[in-house]
């Protein structure tokens, strides 16, 4: 039995932050009813595509039931309210205020069902002065401190190479929903949850927090090295670069022995982590005098033997082909209505040795409309009338 079997979630989200969250919940066994507009989630129309199917939509909507409802129509709003009353959780990521105007806000839905867990995901929160700003990931990264802390030393700010704001908000939404479900079980009461991309990113900067709030110094971009620990970063090898991540004097001593300068461990310039960071150029020069003599594979091998943390810099393709990825089954195939099978990377947590994954791939647009409405108590005549009126839609045959 999966941990969330028996939990029913109405998913009013689209694009990335919300669908990422509900895909993780689907992996854990929750039943996800994804409400889509007649044209579908915007991600259905964003490439890359395979056989007409969006890769991004396929990856982030596994294990869900697609029900097409026109929420602009009063009948569609009533239908969505009816479905919400039959669910344990509602998740939405509309711009603040939109769900309320549709009759699907937290107050309205929890008035009819107080035990409902209602989670709103947005760029800046429901009550921020910036609440109405467009919630693009790069905007949240720019405002959070992430871009200011990221980039080459002396260079310009850089965004992280993934939509980190969306992913962070999705992860915090999952944490919030699971905590609220535990509270619901204990008290019988639900909760109204407010998750902001910007807040989530700010919360994920502990090193920057330490520098800004405790050392009273400015945060500076340091490229691949660590702002507080040395040696820690990418070092030149004969054919590329190797990562070396030393934390503490014991590991530094081991590193010095491997690279043939054991006396450096007692050099006053390198006596503590803080002093080594102050003298980082000298530490780097000493290490690269050795690493530049060998290919990356040899550097990593020799340091690993001495239990000095190290790694090559791998592409995603190299990692997914690695022994680790194979042993951990990081990529698995799900059955898909058009592709036959769709490779996905599911939630990574193991429960008693098993990493749970949704049973099916992403749904066709409106693929479960009829089945979900029948389960909700609508008659065939009512469903036919709603389809005829364009309020709901089934998948194309």
Looking at this protein, list some descriptive labels.
397 residues, alpha/beta, Rossmann fold, formyl-coa transferase, domain 3, 2 domains, 3-stranded antiparallel β-sheet
Going by helix content, strand content and strand pairing, the class is: alpha/beta
Number of strands: 16
Shape: elongated
Overall pLDDT score: 96
Sheet having the most strands: 7 strands, mixed
State the helix count. Answer: 18
CATH topology grouping of the largest domain: Rossmann fold
Q: In percent, how helical is the residue content? A: 25-40%
Strand order of the largest sheet: 8-7-6-1-2-5-16
Estimated radius of gyration: 25 Å
- The total domain count is 2
CATH class of the largest domain: Alpha Beta
Uncertain residue segments? none
CATH-defined architecture of the largest domain: 3-Layer(aba) Sandwich
GO molecular function: CoA-transferase activity
Protein name: CoA transferase
Enzyme class: transferase
Pfam families: CoA_transf_3
In brief:
This protein is of the alpha/beta class. The protein has 18 helices and 16 strands. It has helices at residues 17-27, 55-60, 74-84, 98-101, 106-112, 137-144, 146-149, 164-187, 197-203, 206-214, 249-258, 273-278, 280-291, 296-305, 316-320, 323-328, 369-375, 380-388; strands spanning 8-12, 31-36, 49-50, 53-54, 64-69, 89-92, 117-122, 191-196, 232-236, 241-245, 310-312, 332-336, 340-344, 350-351, 354-355, 392-393.
Describe this structure in words.
The chain has 2 domains: 8-204 and 326-393, 3-Layer(aba) Sandwich (Rossmann fold); 232-313, formyl-coa transferase, domain 3 (2-Layer Sandwich). The chain is 39% helix and 17% strand. It is built from 18 helices and 16 strands. Strands 8-7-6-1-2-5-16 form a 7-stranded mixed beta sheet, sandwiched between helices. Strands 9-10-11 form a 3-stranded antiparallel beta sheet, covered by helices on one side. It has a two-stranded antiparallel ribbon with strand order 3-4. Strand 12 and strand 13 (340-344) form a beta hairpin. Helix 1 crosses helix 8 (164-187) and helix 6 crosses helix 9.
């Amino acid at each position: 039995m999966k941990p969330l079997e028996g939990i029913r979630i109405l998913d009013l989200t689209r694009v990335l932050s919300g669908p990422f969250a509900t895909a993780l919940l689907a992996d854990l066994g929750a039943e996800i009813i994804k409400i889509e507009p007649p044209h579908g989630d915007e991600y259905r129309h964003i490439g890359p595509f395979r056989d007409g199917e969006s890769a991004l939509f396929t990856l982030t909507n596994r294990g869900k039931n697609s029900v097409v409802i026109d929420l602009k129509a009063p009948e569609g709003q009533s239908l969505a309210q009816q479905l919400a009353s039959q669910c344990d959780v509602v998740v939405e990521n509309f711009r603040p205020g939109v769900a309320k105007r549709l009759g699907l806000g937290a107050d309205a839905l929890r008035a009819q069902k107080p035990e409902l867990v209602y989670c709103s995901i947005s760029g800046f929160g429901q009550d921020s002065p910036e609440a109405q700003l467009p919630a693009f990931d790069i905007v949240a990264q720019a405002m959070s401190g992430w871009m200011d802390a990221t980039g080459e030393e002396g260079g310009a700010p850089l965004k992280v190479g993934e939509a980190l704001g969306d992913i962070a908000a999705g992860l915090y939404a999952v944490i919030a929903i699971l905590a609220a479900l535990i509270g619901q079980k204990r008290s019988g009461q639900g909760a109204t949850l407010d998750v902001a991309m910007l807040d989530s990113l700010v919360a994920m900067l502990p090193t920057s927090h330490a520098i800004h709030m405790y050392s009273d110094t400015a945060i500076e971009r340091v490229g691949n090295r660590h702002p507080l620990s040395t040696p820690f970063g990418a070092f030149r090898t004969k054919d590329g670069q190797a990562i070396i991540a030393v934390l503490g004097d014991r590991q530094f001593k081991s590193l010095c022995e491997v690279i043939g300068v054991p006396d450096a461990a007692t050099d006053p310039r390198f006596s503590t982590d803080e002093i080594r960071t102050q003298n980082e150029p000298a530490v780097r020069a000493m290490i690269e005098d050795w690493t530049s003599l060998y290919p990356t594979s040899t550097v990593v091998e020799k340091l690993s033997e001495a239990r000095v943390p190290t790694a090559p810099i791998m592409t995603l393709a190299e990692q997914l082909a690695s022994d680790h990825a194979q042993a951990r089954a990081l990529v698995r195939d799900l059955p898909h209505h058009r592709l036959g099978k769709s490779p996905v990377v599911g939630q990574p947590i193991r429960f008693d040795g098993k990493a749970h994954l949704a049973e099916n791939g992403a749904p066709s647009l409106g693929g479960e409309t009829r089945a979900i409405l029948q389960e909700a108590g609508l008659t065939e005549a009512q469903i036919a009338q709603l389809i005829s009126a364009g309020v709901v839609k089934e998948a194309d045959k």
